């Protein structure tokens, strides 16, 4: 789409874009109408740069970094750190739920948890896509140990 913009990084195609209607102002600060598209990170880029391999690789790396901040890996699969409960509230998996899951296992109760498969980072990580990666698994003592170790790793930073 054509918008008033100024290229700030010719290599990546990153642009400053005027999002309002004040054409006179945009021209006064050196902007001209160019074909731009909004990227994976919310920034604006030259449309011709948005689909090149380097851009797509950076987008995949960005999505992977976001995913690895929101999930952690275990032998059962990836676990979402912030879990949405049935009542609409959210809980931190490690600090709010892990001890209850451990207690359930110690009592001989089969405790099911939602795990996630590793996504294809070349795709947008929409909620609809993430849901397709869900699998229900039974918690195990090994899983509890891995989660406890993740808590230590997070704490030690």
Describe the structure.
There is one protein chain. The chain has 157 residues and is α+β, with helices and mostly antiparallel strands. Helices cover 38% and strands 29% of the residues. It has five helices and ten strands, in the order ββαββαββββαβαβα. It has a four-stranded antiparallel β-barrel with strand order 1-2-4-3. Strands 5-6 form a two-stranded antiparallel sheet. The longest helix has 18 residues, at 53-70. It is elongated, with a radius of gyration of 22 Å. The mean pLDDT is 93.
Short description:
The chain is built from five helices and ten strands; from the N terminus they run ββαββαββββαβαβα. It is an alpha+beta fold and 157 residues long. The strands form four sheets. Strands 1-2-4-3 form a four-stranded antiparallel barrel. A two-stranded antiparallel ribbon has the order 5-6.
């Amino acid at each position: 789409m054509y918008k008033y913009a100024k290229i700030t990084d010719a290599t990546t195609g990153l642009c400053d874009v005027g999002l309002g209607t004040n054409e006179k102002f945009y021209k006064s600060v050196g902007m001209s109408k160019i074909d731009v598209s909004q990227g994976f990170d919310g920034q604006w880029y030259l449309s011709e740069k948005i689909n090149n391999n380097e851009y797509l690789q950076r987008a995949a790396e960005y999505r992977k970094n976001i995913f690895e901040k929101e999930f952690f890996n275990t032998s059962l699969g990836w676990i979402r750190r912030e879990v949405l409960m049935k009542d609409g509230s959210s809980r931190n998996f490690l600090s709010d739920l892990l001890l209850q899951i451990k207690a359930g296992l110690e009592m001989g109760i089969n405790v099911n948890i939602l795990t996630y498969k590793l996504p294809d980072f070349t795709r947008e990580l929409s909620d609809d896509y993430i849901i397709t990666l869900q699998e229900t698994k039974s918690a195990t003592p090994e899983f509890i140990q891995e989660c406890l170790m993740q808590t230590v790793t997070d704490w030690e930073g």
